[in-house]
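Cross-posted from the bioinformatics board.
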Amino acid sequence: MNYIKIFAPATVANVSCGFDSLGFAVDAVGDEMTFTKTAEKGVKITNITGADLTYNIDENAASAVIKKILNTANADFGIALTIHKGFSPGSGLGSSAASAAGAAFGTNQLLGDMYSNLELTKFAMFGEKVACGSEIADNVAAAIFGGFILVRSYHPLEIIKLPVPSELRVVAIHPQISIKTKDARAVLPAEIALKDAVTQWANVGGLISGLYTDNYNLISNSLVDIVAEPARKSLIPFFDDIKNSATKAGALGAGISGSGPTVFALCEGDVVAKAVYKSIEESYKNTGINFEMFISKVNHKGIKIIK
Amino acid sequence: MNYIKIFAPATVANVSCGFDSLGFAVDAVGDEMTFTKTAEKGVKITNITGADLTYNIDENAASAVIKKILNTANADFGIALTIHKGFSPGSGLGSSAASAAGAAFGTNQLLGDMYSNLELTKFAMFGEKVACGSEIADNVAAAIFGGFILVRSYHPLEIIKLPVPSELRVVAIHPQISIKTKDARAVLPAEIALKDAVTQWANVGGLISGLYTDNYNLISNSLVDIVAEPARKSLIPFFDDIKNSATKAGALGAGISGSGPTVFALCEGDVVAKAVYKSIEESYKNTGINFEMFISKVNHKGIKIIK
């Protein structure tokens, strides 16, 4: 194989109760990346469209990952990379994760599938470090494994792929404001009340149980975040309005995607998802803040080969 | 129905990572209770064996629950109760919970099965309040529902019954020392680090995922408690020795049952369970502290009708 074109999905991390532990991949939104083998070793970025990202090999999440894998594998070839960003960096939808995960996946294909998904996740985490300063696993694991994932442990890294009820849909709104991950981290408390922690892990248990049993009611009851959301929601203008609009229209629940500003809502079925989309759109269009929205299935397969 | 004899199981609450949220019922150990309809209204305790418990109707967890249910149901009969305790109060194995849950179940049978398991759990929680001062659900729900349970929420009360892998066994050791629930609560921190909370809820997610998928390795990896166990283990003499003996002999994990002093170990299969039993016994017999032990399957059915 000398060439591959892939789709690397956007991802929603945290998923209300599962702060720093849960994530899922989206079907409708993501990046396209191409990887072409070159006789010359090393990585070249030949084109980036859709967003203004660095061409510096060691600072771009995708090329940094490719370089690391090619070195680790002692590859006798290089890679020429193109990236078409299908969604905005800084949206809270795992932009750097899509680039890093896509890079790991594409490179592995050109290497003849040397590495497991867990190993690819580790390589992609290096890309997250390049982009954001820390080796966060939830977005990259969701992009690589697809579906819902649980980061059970970092040391050693253990990723659990969870089932996805077939009617689960996601509606997302991206208010066009900028939140730095660093700022979103800074508002979080260093400590939380033990009783709040208990509430949160009972909801994690409920959400995961709901995913295994297709129990939408239980998923809905469990989509509650009393830890990160109360601290972060003030960073997102009209967050409560979005959430109320979503739940009023029948969403199972809504919360902050990653560190925001995107807000996601989970829904059972297309009809409800469309109603939730309209309800959120209606509530946000008079705020004076530009926004983008999408409806999507949950992506079960992770990164997809286009060509 | 004018008479019923039941078995109300001992239960293990918390289950390492699931502090105040998870519990499971035990097959081999529990109380026997009989309920006889009387023409005279109200409750009488006619006999208590196996432990020194109060005959005061409003202070005994079982009779207090029976009284409450009979009043709520506006029953036209009374109940004469006998209790044979099969295990010690104060062991950390849900002694008051077995009494309270058994009382709720037995009374409901004589009422012609008026109430759901969830309603019976609420009645039994009143018994916990009578016995311990707070309406804790994890032990009583495990006794009533059987198997593994998750207390997803208290307000409203939502109990999720989780699956139990068929080879799951429990080994328990009860050092004959006394720990008051109040003291075990007092050593807990009011606040915990957010990063520790994340670790804990990722393990709750892993444990529940392992139960759904019969993944003993994942169950083992997830049986970690970095919140309550570090604070409480000093209350249990030779706790680390017990735990090391259990894991060395192949246990999936070990932890404090409820607020102790009983320590439980989960194992895959009878052969490992027997080896774990012997290993713990060997390590504890020279401590100078008296102890009791048992091996059991996880009880899938909750309270059982004997006659």
